[in-house]
Design goal:
It is a single chain. This protein has one domain: UDP-N-acetylmuramoyl-L-alanine:D-glutamate ligase (3-Layer(aba) Sandwich), CATH 3.40.1190. With 178 residues, the chain is of the alpha/beta class. The chain is 28% helix and 26% strand. The two termini are 18 Å apart. α1 packs parallel to α4 and α4 runs antiparallel to α5. The protein is built from 5 helices and 7 strands. The strands form 2 sheets. Strands 3-2-6-7 form a 4-stranded mixed β-sheet. Strands 1-4-5 form a 3-stranded parallel β-sheet, covered by helices on one side.
């Protein structure tokens, strides 16, 4: 199965416990790296400023094929975590990368996955404890783990896998490590 993640990488400026850290992330990183480390073939199509490309090493480190298209600027977000609760987050857009055009995505080759509620049952699985540092990327990690799980197992098992993988990822900053 090949999953292609399309979206902007992000230069996050995270204010945690009074200290600013720069983190090179974004949903496409968290999703693609998680999918790859769970055994799926993953690729990324993204846009960012040329000067920022060298900092997005998570793709290369995980063996994910990433295509960077040119942009005048990179998407950058300031995330403020005023308390130890990772859900207490204030986000502000600093800058945005150029939008994608239909020409940018016209030649993509990937399996298409469409998620649909099965109409009979709600599937849920608990998350374990997590840290503020592990907050960024949890939704993207969960989605990617669920997509990979759905190719291998049923809804209940894929939901449990997504919660398990996401809970492990939320113990540290950065993309899922496997």
């Amino acid at each position: 199965m090949r999953i292609t993640f399309i979206g902007h990488v992000c230069v996050d400026k995270n204010l945690i416990r009074g200290e600013i850290e720069t983190f090179y992330g974004g949903g496409v990183i968290h999703g693609a790296v998680t999918a790859k480390r769970l055994g799926a073939e993953a690729s990324v199509l993204t846009k960012c400023a040329e000067a920022d490309r060298e900092h997005f090493t998570s793709f290369r480190d995980a063996g994910v094929d990433a295509t960077f298209l040119p942009s005048r600027s990179s998407t950058s977000i300031r995330n403020e975590y005023p308390t130890g609760n990772p859900d207490d987050r204030r986000s502000h857009i600093i800058s945005r990368a150029d939008p994608f055009s239909s020409a940018d995505i016209a030649s993509l080759e990937a399996d298409v996955v469409h998620l649909v509620y099965d109409g009979r049952e709600l599937y849920e699985s608990p998350f374990t404890s997590f840290t503020v540092e592990g907050r960024t990327g949890r939704g993207d990690t969960c989605t990617a783990a669920f997509l990979v799980g759905m190719q291998r197992m049923g809804l209940r098992e894929a939901t449990a896998l997504a919660a398990e993988v996401t809970s492990r990822k939320m113990q540290y900053r950065g993309a899922y490590r496997g």
